[in-house]
Amino acid sequence: MKIVSACLMGCECRYDQKDNRVSEIEQLVKDGKAIPVCPEQLGGLSTPRNPAEIVGGDGFDVLDGKARVIDNEGNDVTGAFLQGARQALLMAQTVQATEAILKERSPSCGSTSIYDGTFSRTKQKGVGVTAALLLRHGISVRSEESLD
To answer: Which domain of life is it from (predicted)?
Structure first.
């Protein structure tokens, strides 16, 4: 069993209330092989919501208290991102997921790159908060971009 970012199966749960639908991921969910999750919604954030980026590191740094997740208006939303990551992990563990396919560049779900915290669309190497927590618990994480 896998978990997948809900936006990748067509849920309009991105910060801008859009999706990032990928037909292969939608089919995994239809076939009962994947469970969709949106960590940001699970953490209590609304849709739509202000875009957010990790400032001061990546998801591992957020888990370790060394970085924060800040939205584009300067609000600290770290707590919601941590709560959402914990809920996504609970869902993954409940269905005994061994893999997650997550939305690249997301501050929650990025698996190899995230935005750098300047809101300039500049990417940096690193993982999102949920990706980091899943990795720390032995769940492999990859990007939807790896499906190509």
So the answer is: Bacteria
How many helices (H) and strands (E) are present in the chain, helices listed first?
5, 8
Spatial distance between the Cα atoms of 8 and 10, rounded to a whole number of angstroms? 5
Distance CA 130, CA 6 (A): 13
Cα 85–chain centre separation: 8
Q: Which domain holds residue 54?
A: 2-147
Distance CA 65, CA 96 (A): 28
Q: Which tokens sit at 76?
A: 């600290």
